[in-house]
Amino acid sequence: EEEEDTLPNKTGDRNGLIRYQVTADDGHPLRLYSRSPTTDTSSSVMNMNASANNKPSILLLHGRTWSSQPVFDLRTSDNDEKQQSTIQSLTNLGFHVYAMDLRGFGETPRCDNDGGYTTPNRCVEDVKCAIDWIARRHDANHGRNHQDDNNNVAESLVKMSSKPALLGWSQGALVAQMYAQKYGPATISDLVLFGTIYDPRVIYPRKPLYDPSGQLISGGKDAVKPPAPEVLNTVTASLEDFTLPGTICDEAALEFSSVALAVDTIKAEWDELHEFNVCNPALVHVPTMVIVGAQDPYVTWDAQSELFERLGHEDKAMCVLPACDHAAHILKARKMFVRSVVGFLLRKAGF
After folding, report:
1. What pLDDT, in 10s, does the model give residues 174-200?
2. Could you tell me which residues are beta bridge partners of residue 57?
C-alpha cells in the first residue's frame, strides 16, 4: 500500500514520471522515482521468463549537486526517442528502476532537525530505507517469518528472491560504497560505482566541535548547528560537468540545466564530510563494477586503479568509457554506459 504523497511536485507530469514517497527511519519523507516501460519488454535482452516480482531491481543515487530528475531522467522528447533517460532505458530493458532524491535535493526537503544539512551517514540510512522499500515492493516472500536455527524469528533483513542492485554516481558513489560496507550482501545483489570520486589520499577534515561561544555544533545528537545557508544554483553551475566539446548536444545540455534549476533551485548543503573517510574498498564484500569516463576530470587513475584492486570481492569488473567525461550516462556515448551496467548485472544470466 502506497503512502500518501505530501511531497512537492516541482516539474509536473513529465510524460508519466512516477513518484513515490518513502518514510525514513526518523520519519522524514523521501522522494523516489520510476517509469513504466515504453516498449515491449518480453523480448528484452534480460527477459528470463521471470515474473514481474522476480525481475532485477536497481536503485540509482545522484551526486553532490544535482538530484535524480536531471541526472537520471533527462529527456528532450516526450517519448525519450533518443534514449537519454537512464531510468527509462533500464526500465525498457526489463529492470525495476528507482532513483531517489537525497535530503535537500529535488523533491526531498531538507530536515530541520539536522539544521537542513545533507550528511553521508544520514544518506546511508535513507538508502537503507529505500532498499527495504524496494525489497518489500518486489519480493513476494518479503515480510514472511524467516526462522533461524534456534527457531527464533531472524532479524528483519531484506529477504528477497532477487536483491536490488545499487548504483551511485560521483559523490553518490561514495554513499553507495559506505552503504555496501555497512549493509552489503545482506541487502543488495551488486554494486556499481560510476564516476566515483573515491581517493585514498583525500582525507576530509572534521569541523570544529564547538563554535567560539562554546556551543556544541558538531559531533553528537545534542549539537546545535547553525541553519544551512540557502544559496541559489546557477545556469553556469548546471553545465559544469560537461567538459568535453561535442559530447552532448546543446538541446540536451539546456534541458539538463532547465530541469536542474527547476528542482534544485537552492543548493543542497553537505556537512560532516569526514564521514566519507570510512570508505575502504577492502570492506566491500559484494560484486562490484567500477565505471569511469576516460576523460573524467574529477577522478585520478591511481585512485580508480587502487579502488578496483582493493575491492573485497573477487567478482568485480572495470569499464572505461572512451571519449567520455564525468556525466557519461547522458552523453552521446550513453548507450555504452547502459550496456556496461546491464552486462554486469546480467553476467550470470547466460543471455
Report:
1. 999 999 999 999 999 999 999 999 999
2. 96
Decide if 47 contacts 85 (C-beta within 8 A). Answer: no
pLDDT tens column, 39-78:
876 555 555 445 555 689 999 999 999 999 999 999 998 8
Could you tell me the pTM of the whole model? 0.91
C-alpha 195/C-alpha 64 separation (Å) is 12
Question: For residue 177, how far is the Cα from the chain centroid?
Answer: 11
CA distance 156 to 154: 6
Q: CA 319, 323, 325 angle in degrees (round to 5)?
A: 80
In angstroms, rounded to a whole number, what is the distance separating the alpha carbons of residues 272 and 162?
34
How far apart, in whole angstroms, are the C-alpha atoms of residue 320 and residue 251? 26
For 201-224, b/e burial (b = at least 16 CB within 10 A) is eeeeeeeeeeeeeeeebbeeeeee
Contact in structure between 337 and 321 (CB atoms under 8 Å): yes
User: Is the CB of residue 35 less than 8 Å from the CB of residue 111?
Assistant: no
